[in-house]
């Protein structure tokens, strides 16, 4: 099975690297700068689960190649270009598995390619790209979940799962990927929302009564928005997510927060803006989401030189 990983960043570099370490046939679709960096240093993973470095196979947009599975791991604000770039590699029976946070990209993928080719996917990992281009993975969880929208388990899904068998990552095919994705979306919208608003890792936020209450209210609010739109969330999901918040490491940050600390672009519209629009459409009152989203929009403005 031949994998094409689109983007060799924090997520794609990690899971693609773990696949390559597991002796799978992996190629990375990258852009010029990352290609030069990888040629110089190789792909270097520094992880609590063990370091790994190797010289990856790479292609640039327009190069020839044929692949069975495309793992899409760009940021949401990079997706339009990425979808154009992968078009030549998406032949009839090929599978695309997105790893991004959120849901909005799924509409784009299904509009662009045949719905049958697009699987659901998500990951739970704390991973960063250092200035030198190293993949730095810092927490115990390194889970990649993917599956068919109808919950079936055909060979193409089992084959992907088998490719990860024995790898240093926790990759699972799911029979409930729609629910899994919405639940992850709920988690990350709240987690990235509070960590960017309060500029703290999760530990201090959950410890201080007021910020903890804010987080719990934000979860409830987002849960209501999603339920109004018939998102298939399990019962007591806010309570379950609050338990996870209490279990994760004190120092854990969201990827959006790390991007903000680097003064980089953030997925504000993709994650929080999308839910904000859903709230407006369904009439759910979202004062806490409004605070989170305003903070992100203000941050985005502050990046403009004219502001
Ligand atoms: N990092 C994390 O801990 C987690 C992230 N996520 C989600 O995963 C997604 C990816 O995030 P993350 O890996 O952190 O982001 P990164 O910025 O680290 O990686 C994205 C990579 O995609 C590359 N890229 C963008 N467009 C293209 C293109 N057209 N062709 C080839 N390469 C391209 C970028 O390369 P270039 O240098 O050329 O721009 C970059 O290396 C996001 O939706 C994020 O929310 C989910 C869970 C955890
Ligand atoms: C939930 C978390 C924090 C880890 O997977 C994440 O998705 C992110 O940082 O983007």
From TrEMBL:
Pathway: Cofactor biosynthesis; (R)-pantothenate biosynthesis; (R)-pantoate from 3-methyl-2-oxobutanoate: step 2/2
Keyword entries, A-Z: NADP, Oxidoreductase, Pantothenate biosynthesis
A Pfam cross-reference name: ApbA_C
InterPro entries listed in its UniProt record: 6-PGluconate_DH-like_C_sf, 6PGD_dom2, ApbA, KPA_reductase, KPR-Related, KPR_N, NAD(P)-bd_dom_sf
Presence of the UniProt keyword Oxidoreductase in the record: yes
Family listed: Belongs to the ketopantoate reductase family.
Known function: Catalyzes the NADPH-dependent reduction of ketopantoate into pantoic acid.
Protein name stated in the entry: 2-dehydropantoate 2-reductase
Organism: Metabacillus flavus
């Amino acid at each position: 099975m031949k994998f094409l990983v689109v983007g060799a960043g924090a997520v794609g570099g990690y899971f693609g690297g773990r696949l390559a370490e597991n002796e799978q046939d992996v190629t990375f679709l990258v852009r010029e700068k990352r290609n030069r960096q990888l040629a110089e240093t190789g792909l270097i993973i520094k992880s609590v689960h063990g370091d790994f470095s190797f010289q990856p196979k790479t292609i640039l947009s327009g190069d020839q190649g044929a692949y069975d599975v495309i793992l899409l791991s760009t940021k949401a604000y990079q997706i339009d270009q990425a979808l154009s770039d992968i078009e030549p590699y998406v032949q009839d029976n090929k599978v695309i598995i997105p790893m991004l946070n959120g849901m909005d990209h799924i509409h784009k993928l299904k509009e662009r390619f045949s719905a049958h080719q697009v699987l659901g996917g998500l990951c739970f990992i704390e991973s960063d790209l250092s200035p030198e281009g190293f993949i730095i993975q810092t927490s115990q969880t390194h889970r990649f979940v993917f599956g068919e929208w109808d919950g079936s388990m055909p060979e193409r899904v089992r084959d992907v799962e088998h490719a990860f068998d024995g790898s240093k990552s926790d990759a699972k095919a799911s029979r409930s990927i729609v629910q899994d994705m919405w639940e992850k979306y709920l988690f990350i919208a709240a987690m990235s929302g509070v960590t960017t608003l309060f500029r703290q890792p999760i530990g201090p936020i959950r410890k201080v009564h007021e910020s903890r209450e804010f987080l719990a209210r934000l979860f409830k609010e987002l849960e209501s928005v999603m339920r109004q739109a018939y998102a298939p969330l399990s019962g007591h999901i806010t309570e379950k997510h609050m338990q996870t918040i209490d279990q994760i490491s004190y120092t854990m940050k969201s990827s959006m927060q790390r991007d903000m600390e680097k003064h980089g672009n953030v997925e504000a519209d993709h994650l929080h803006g999308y839910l904000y629009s859903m709230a407006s459409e369904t009439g759910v009152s979202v004062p806490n989401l409004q605070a989170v989203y305003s903070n992100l929009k203000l941050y985005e403005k502050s990046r403009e030189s004219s502001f």
